[in-house]
# Entry
Amino acid sequence: MKPTANTAKQAIRSLAVVMGMTLGMPTISAALQTSIPATTSPEAPKFAKTTVRWVLVSIPDRKLALLENGKVVRIYRVAVGKSSTPSPAGAFQIVNRLTNPTYYHKGQVIAAGANNPVGSRWIGLTAKGYGIHGTNQPNSIGKAASTGCIRMSKRDLEELFELVNVGDRVEIRAERDEQLAAVFAASTEAEELAQVHTEAENSGGQ
# Structure
């Protein structure tokens, strides 16, 4: 049968459809295509202002300061290591926080309680075996009396415990410098004035 012009046109149309499917060309009419809205780039996340918190311990002043964003927010009296077992000087981080810890030392195991040498809280440092903790010898606060750890009174320790987190930096300084003088001078002067006032009252009462 001799192909007519119409037959040839139909064949060309069929071939075009087949080629369009093979090459991935769209064969759906424009009226049936679903438009996809252009996606906009997501908005950059808004981060809350980060609080930079760190602890500064002055061995010569026997004090500990908590700083936030460069400002001193707390200062506490502490006990530091005695001469035979000095506190480690350097930059460390808090690695754990324990409530009512059990005391382990040279075969000794002492459960939480009034007789526990580390008190009610333990703030462990990256200096292995060292930490900031309480004491069952409150009269040692303000002295060089520990085996290297930083001791605090129960109330002060429990307050500090709630203010610091794992990862916070802790610097222990063995020598006075300008920063220690700036941080601790005011509190030292206040303590000295209070001591003078107390001694004057006691003297007047005798």
